[in-house]
Give the backbone structure.
Amino acid sequence: MASKRIKNLNDMSEDDREKKLKELRLDLVKSKVNASKTGNSKSRELRKAIARINTFNTSEDRKKGMLKK
């Protein structure tokens, strides 16, 4: 679920990526709570997926000329 590859992100619209980002952030919070209870966590995988989407969004903004390098 959390592993989104770049080819999948290319197919998603900007709104879909934002929805997925919010969903992953919520899952990260839930994962941290569960980790404190059970000691088992997948937060690292979720953080990587969030970073991957943020990086993709930043590169798309640069391509559109919205951000300077």
Summary: The first helix runs from residue 6 to 11. The chain has a mean pLDDT of 83. The helical segments are 6-11, 14-38, 43-64.
